From TrEMBL:
Identification of the protein by name: Polyhydroxyalkanoic acid system family protein
Matching InterPro entries: PHA_gran_rgn
Length: 102
């Protein structure tokens, strides 16, 4: 089993507003990446468990929404591990855009 990809995204929205934005934003973000689709998205309190599919591979993980940051952890199959750095940068950028105060 591979080490998980972990991304922490700081925000100043508070937990409730960050969760509201994330609940509407994940599917939209995935729609912008043609090789990725969301198979499952399940919220329990401030944790979202998810399963995504990219390049025919399935990756599962969760994100925890806290008052000052969001922490995403996803375990990538071996094929997608080759794209881990690119994925990490893309997640960081998309997350910051979604969680920036407007």
């Amino acid at each position: 089993m591979s080490a998980p990809l972990i991304v922490s995204i700081p925000h100043s929205l508070g937990r409730d507003e960050a969760m509201r934005r994330l609940k509407t934003g994940l599917s939209r973000a995935a729609a912008n990446v043609p090789v990725m689709s969301v198979d499952e998205e399940r919220w329990e309190d401030n944790r979202m468990s998810f399963r995504i599919r990219a390049l025919g591979q399935v990756a599962a993980g969760h994100l925890d929404v806290e008052d000052t940051h969001v922490r995403l952890e996803v375990t990538l199959p071996w094929l997608l591990q080759r794209f881990a750095e690119v994925a990490q940068a893309a997640i960081q950028k998309s997350g910051q855009l979604l969680l920036t105060k407007r």
